[in-house]
Automatic annotation (TrEMBL):
This is Phytase-like domain-containing protein. It comes from Pseudosulfitobacter pseudonitzschiae. Residues 36-263 form the Phytase-like domain. Keywords: Signal. It comes from the Bacteria.
Amino acid sequence: MLRRSVLALICAAACANAEPALTLDGITPLPRLSDSFGGLSAIEMSDGGAEALVLSDRGALFHLVMDRTGDTMEVASATPDNRTAQLGDTEGMAVDAQGTLYISLEGPAGIFAERADGTFERLKDHADFAGMVTNRALEALAVSANGTLVTMPEATATSATPFPVYLYKDGSWTKGPELPREGSFLVTGADFGSDGLLYVLERAVSFRGFASRIRRFDLTAPDLSEMTLLKTDAGTYGNLEGLSVWQDAKGITHLSLVADDNFNVFQSNQIVEFTLTE
């Protein structure tokens, strides 16, 4: 009895000290379903991973239905959704608790919110948006549980300049804590988990291909509680640009990442999925 109690305490202590880890679930290639199905820059999973929206950097939106009955996830169907077709250089996407769709643009920088009739209105800009470099502007967009929109640009002025974080709530913009810029990685996507933490997807480019990194932050903590969950070698995956953090029916947290093929026959659209263990 004493021995079992000691072992239980040791196990509890080990579990408490275990670092969060990502385990690869699988890689799902996405065929070119139409001329506009490419350049995928954002993904939003829903219904416990059964459905998803994926967004192209040319304004094309698609609704995917997933088949998770086998050993690996497959896309059962993909249906065009024309709501965002006229928005332009679309990069980030977020859906709030009420189902409202938000889109961020890379050039010129801006955020659009869906109206009740399915059309979009441009939210007022933060003063900084006008000075952002086209094609390096609002790459990532996320929405917190309380409805605060969080966006950030892909790049900053220098490799030593941290990433600014912009917060939109109740019609007003404020600036949040800056995220440290480390190495050659640049922001490509972001999402909030059910834990209230911000997950940020980053990309670095070299002659060997694309490297990916996922960092996690607590925007309410003085030190941001930064943690690196994933850092890959160049060429491990494709050009991962979009990130969705979601929970399945068992409450297990998953991360789904979508790759941009740049409408290039030598690259591919793909969804890469991980399970998070704490």
